């Protein structure tokens, strides 16, 4: 009998981080599975991008029937009691559901953690649920008590030690320590080397900046957020006068995309002189192409964590502007690169932001220790990649253990 596996959390492959995780997992488990069908929770457009990224054609789409605009009473009936078509559409047709990692199961998104947890709890009664490559927690108070009940019997593969320790302390039965699924070579990574040659930077060194569209995670002052990024551009121009500057959109899917929400506003705010040698790249790319661009940089300054992960995988340094716990877990502890993180939540954002001064100091630190830093990155990425391979082997073992 054919086993059916559903992989979720990949509704938009225009979030290159989410797409990397999906592509790495699917491309590595599919060749070892007989009589098994893989479905992705996405539409046909995004499925085609996953097929191209994995170089696998035998993947099927699944579109969720989950509705969000309902009352608390309806949510209780639907998700706690499991009486909802979106749950039965999964439990009646699939043997396993793999939820790919992110940071939405944390205190930053605690309401979502409870709602999602109630759904996963109901599904897990009939269909094996695995949380893969997750930043999980921390939670406190009532949220902690509720999540302890909801996630107790669901295997959680953590992508950082903070999440692992919290999950173990919460009493979850099956917790596996691992790292982010993006910390592996993408299957077609080597085929996109020509992307660098097609850039306006050909023959020149460049610095890549990745402004996040999630400005509200940092500050309530969107104008100040834009002004800080303009200040970062001017800082980079001052420190690297012969380099080009790339503004890379790393999340292009709605609603808070990097291109429309951040990059366009930054470009509008630049003077004619400031905009010289600044190259925006906001067209749709394969994740492997985005990784090649990041890897061709002298260094990267980013508000998107997976842009930093890709940069490190390409053995280059990245300065991260952090807005959640995932940065300290994945980058700080996992890669032992806490000295490349700037905690940027609820800070003073604007023309004279101290964040610009901190970036200045971080850039000097990188330049003064570049060789040793790259050597350390190389070593830590190798360690993390081995842990990700163990994660994939665990998932394969769980799939093979499903009743035929």
Automatic annotation (TrEMBL):
<dbReference type="GO" id="GO:0016740">
    <property type="term" value="F:transferase activity"/>
</dbReference>
<dbReference type="InterPro" id="IPR007345">
    <property type="entry name" value="Polysacch_pyruvyl_Trfase"/>
</dbReference>
<keyword id="KW-0808">Transferase</keyword>
<dbReference type="Pfam" id="PF04230">
    <property type="entry name" value="PS_pyruv_trans"/>
</dbReference>
<feature type="domain" description="Polysaccharide pyruvyl transferase">
    <location>
        <begin position="15"/>
        <end position="324"/>
    </location>
</feature>
<protein>
    <submittedName>
        <fullName>Polysaccharide pyruvyl transferase family protein</fullName>
    </submittedName>
</protein>
């Amino acid at each position: 009998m054919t086993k059916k596996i559903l992989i979720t959390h990949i509704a938009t492959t225009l979030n290159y981080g989410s797409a990397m995780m999906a592509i790495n997992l699917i491309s590595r488990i599919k060749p070892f599975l007989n009589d098994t069908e893989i479905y992705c929770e996405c539409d046909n457009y995004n499925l085609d991008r996953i097929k191209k990224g994995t170089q696998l054609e035998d993947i099927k789409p699944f579109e969720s029937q989950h509705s969000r605009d309902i009352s608390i009473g309806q949510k209780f009936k639907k998700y706690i009691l499991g009486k909802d078509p979106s749950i039965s559409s999964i439990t009646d047709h699939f043997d396993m559901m793999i939820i790919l990692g992110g940071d939405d199961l944390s205190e930053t998104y605690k309401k979502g953690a409870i709602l999602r947890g109630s759904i996963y709890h109901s599904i897990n009664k009939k269909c094996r649920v695995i949380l893969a490559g997750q930043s999980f927690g921390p939670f406190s108070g009532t949220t902690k008590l509720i999540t302890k009940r909801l996630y107790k019997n669901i295997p959680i593969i953590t992508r950082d030690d903070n999440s692992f320790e919290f999950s173990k302390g919460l009493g979850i039965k099956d917790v596996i320590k691992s790292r982010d699924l993006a910390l592996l070579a993408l299957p077609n990574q080597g085929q996109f080397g020509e992307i660098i040659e097609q850039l306006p930077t050909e023959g020149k060194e460049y610095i890549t900046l990745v402004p996040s569209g999630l400005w509200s995670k940092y500050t309530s002052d969107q104008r100040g957020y834009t002004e800080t990024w303009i200040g970062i551009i001017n800082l980079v121009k001052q420190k690297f006068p012969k380099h080009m500057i790339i503004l890379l959109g790393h999340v292009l899917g709605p609603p808070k995309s990097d291109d429309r929400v951040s990059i366009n506003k930054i470009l509008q705010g630049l003077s004619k002189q400031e905009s010289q040698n600044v190259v925006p790249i906001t067209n749709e790319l394969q994740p492997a192409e985005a990784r090649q661009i990041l890897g061709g940089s002298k260094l990267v300054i980013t508000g998107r964590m997976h842009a930093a992960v890709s940069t490190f995988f390409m053995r280059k340094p990245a300065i991260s502007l952090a807005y959640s716990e995932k940065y300290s877990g994945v980058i700080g502890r996992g890669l032992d690169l806490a000295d490349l993180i700037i905690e940027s939540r609820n800070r003073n954002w604007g023309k004279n932001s101290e964040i610009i001064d901190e970036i200045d100091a971080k850039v000097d630190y990188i330049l003064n220790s570049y060789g040793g830093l790259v050597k350390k990155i190389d070593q830590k990425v190798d360690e993390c990649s081995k842990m990700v391979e163990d994660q994939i082997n665990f998932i394969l073992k769980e799939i093979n253990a499903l009743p035929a």
